[in-house]
Design brief:
One of its GO terms (molecular function) is RNA binding. Residues 30-186 form the Pseudouridine synthase II N-terminal domain. Pfam families: TruB_C, TruB_C_2, TruB_N. Keywords: Isomerase, tRNA processing. It is a single chain. This protein has eight helices and 19 strands. It is an alpha+beta fold and 299 residues long. The chain folds into three domains: 10-68 and 212-234, Pseudouridine synthase (2-Layer Sandwich); 70-209, Pseudouridine synthase (2-Layer Sandwich); 242-296, Archaeosine Trna-guanine Transglycosylase, Chain: A, domain 4 (Roll), CATH 2.30.130. Strand 16 (244-246), helix 8 and strand 17 form a beta-alpha-beta unit. The two termini are 23 Å apart.
């Protein structure tokens, strides 16, 4: 990572703390970066912690093209209590005695959530219903019924079931590590697991460990950023997020004019000048061996 100066562009991968909204983090980074041109790729609930990818200056345009389709989480699900929000911030809607659930029972039920599944998003999601966010409709007292959507849970690795520590001893917790497609709601997995077991369930902890190629290894806390603001330069971010191709001087000149290139590309590709400058994203055309600019980042 390198320190920004003036109009430098790049990604800031933040290890978001609990209690802040994604917008709160954007506001903090705007002040630290000295620019209002800051955006984020994918929100995190206030309760959640972990990886939040932000773009600064020109890199805000890169966010919309990044293949951030796979995400990873560490979560704790509490069984025996259901809530209005499917997490610990909601009001309790039902309780049941879950203390006799075994690890094998819970693991068998969780196996049903692996693969390509149909998932009903949580009612307090940011999905728009007739132009209005679902969570806002819930806050306004409306009943929200969202349609199931296809999502993919690539891996779901559960730990042992353990007592949750409540005074009555009726609830149990299970930790899970999840690798899934974008759009998957871990809260919905907690809710549906509780329903499948007949005891209700909700999420009590959620930490996002990776978004696409950006993980906690490159993330910085807000305290670290306040002590010395750094960001992932746009060229490195592009090399991490896309296949990369180094061009000749002639090809680089064509890119600066937005011209097509004689390239055979299998996927959206980041192209670079001979000196390493990130120039653009290119994609294949219908004509074999010809590529066109998807987004140019020079000038």
């Amino acid at each position: 990572m390198t320190s920004p100066a003036g109009a430098e562009s790049g990604l800031v991968v933040v290890d978001k703390p609990a209690g802040l909204t994604s917008h709160d983090v954007v506001a903090r980074v705007r002040r630290l970066a000295g620019t209002r041109k800051v955006g984020h790729a994918g929100t995190l609930d206030p309760m959640a912690t972990g990886v939040l990818v932000l773009g600064v200056n020109r890199a805000t345009r890169l966010l919309g093209h990044l293949m951030l389709t796979e995400k990873a989480y560490d979560a704790t699900i509490r069984l025996g209590v259901a809530t209005t929000t499917d997490d610990a911030e909601g009001e309790v809607t039902s309780t049941a005695d879950a203390q006799d659930l075994t690890t094998d029972e819970v693991h068998r039920a969780l196996a049903g959530f692996v693969g390509e599944i149909e998932q009903v998003p949580t009612a307090v999601s940011a999905i728009k219903v007739d132009g209005k966010r679902a969570y806002q409709r819930v806050r306004d007292g409306e009943q929200v019924a969202l349609a199931a959507r296809p999502v993919t849970v690539h891996e779901l690795d559960p730990g042992p079931v353990r007592p949750a520590g409540d005074p009555a001893g009726r609830t149990v917790d299970v930790d899970v590590t999840v690798r899934c497609s974008s759009g998957t709601y871990i809260r919905a997995i907690a809710r549906d697991l509780g329903a499948a077991l007949g005891v209700g369930g909700h999420l009590v902890a959620l930490r996002r460990s990776a978004v696409g190629p950006y993980d906690l290894g490159v993330a910085r806390t807000l305290e670290e950023l306040s002590a010395g603001f750094t960001m992932l330069p746009i060229a490195r971010a592009a090399r991490l997020g896309f296949p990369g191709l180094d061009l000749s001087e002639t090809q680089a000149a064509d890119v600066r004019y937005g011209r097509k290139l004689e390239l055979d590309l299998a996927a959206t590709t980041a192209v670079f000048a001979p000196d390493g400058e990130f120039l653009a994203l290119y994609e294949a055309t219908d004509a074999p061996g010809l590529a066109r600019p998807l987004a140019v980042f020079t000038g």
